[in-house]
Amino acid sequence: MKNKVASAILIGMLIMSACSISNSKEAEQNSVAASSEESLESVSSTDQTQEDEFNAQMPVHSGIWQAADYGRTNYYFEFSEGYTGRRLGANAGDVEAFSYEVNDGDNLVMHYADRNEYAHYSFGDDGKHLVLTYQDYQQNLQWMSHGTLEDMGGLGLTFTAKDITPFGCTLQYSQSGGYVTGEITADNSFNLIVHSEDDDEWGYTDYFGTEGQTFTIEKDSSGEIKIDWTSKLGMLIPGDYVLSFQIRDIRNIGGDWDSFDYRVWFSVPQNDGERIDVYGE
Prior knowledge:
- Helix content is 20%, strand content 49%.
- The chain is of the alpha+beta class.
């Protein structure tokens, strides 16, 4: 009898020990899995932080910076890696490329094709504000978005003007990647920035298209819009033009969005005066 009791006790202890080992291994596996998930989340979070992190130092953080004085935009600066960039006048279509370097710690030299510009620079605490102090004026720059002058919002958008005639064109677009936070909505109202050869200046035309009407650009999509400016502008003379329109990244239609002025550069070729219809009419 005693032997049977002892055997039963021994078997019970072995079963408890086996369960304990099994639970221990399961707990260890769960711990490793949880640790792995936390690690992935940490890496993802770190990557996002690094992507959006601004350091108050040179080179300037890549993307579009807006230079504004007295509430009005004067220039858009596109800064890229390698101490290079481009500058676009807010009311013009002409783009100037430049390279830049730092002298004496906090003095900036910007090299354009036809001149050099010298300025003392300083950053705001968050790195998103850059003050350039020239000899006789000052520019306050604020970071606006990821992207380039062709993709002002960094929304992964590409626009191309095709089938260009003095009467209209086809605007092709595509979307891929980018930093979209809501729904991409484009105005169906446009104007042109026209270059005058006589005085080498740029100026805006009246709006054409349908004011107040918009269209949505879906993610990972492409399409085209037929544009006819003759009802407002008539037949364009040969020359250089910029098609200008607005795009919003709308998170909440009640008022939470970012708005960007997009531009497409194109040239109107010589024409014999006969209308070339690209609209299938």
